[in-house]
């Protein structure tokens, strides 16, 4: 006689943790930091509050893990877009720009979650460390593409400074568009960023570039 399959199965710990992390992200997007509690997350995930405490030390631990997970999800979306582009520095950089203003990246829920993390970065050492890691990886990728373009075009620029400038531009456009989409379209945001790349290629980005010092004036004698 065949054994009956058990009616219920125990979720794997990683699967349950991810379920709680995703529920936390949804709660942060809808209710903000103050409205995201163990009970709210448990209700969102459809589990008991005790199960939340079983998998995480507390809300601080859960929010930190949610930041790590969100950063990885954003990175996953960017990687998918980059994989479809030619493996050349400029093509990869332009694909990065386009992906930064794609529909998934402009999801209002992502804005709500990201603003929570940004607000905690200045006061919470753990969140500050995670933020540093997420953005360091982000800038290193841009720096690699910019270095490749600079080498091809023989540009005398500092790729690290250029990556900082582009990061600030992309973040600013993304934030402003998410806060008020009526200000400009995603297409216009992409165009602004692509114009920046055009100026970089043309050698018009000079921040951090090594400039030749003018030769000292030689006084005439006699």
From TrEMBL:
Keyword presence, Transcription regulation: yes
Database matches in PROSITE patterns: HTH_TETR_1 (PS01081), HTH_TETR_2 (PS50977)
Key words of the record: DNA-binding, Repressor, Transcription, Transcription regulation
DNA-binding residues (ranges): 37-56
Gene3D superfamilies reported for this sequence: Tetracycline Repressor, domain 2
Domain annotation HTH tetR-type: ranges: 14-74
Signal peptide: none
Domain of life: Bacteria
Pfam families referenced in this protein's UniProt entry, alphabetically: TetR_C_6, TetR_N
Protein name, as recorded: Transcriptional regulator BetI
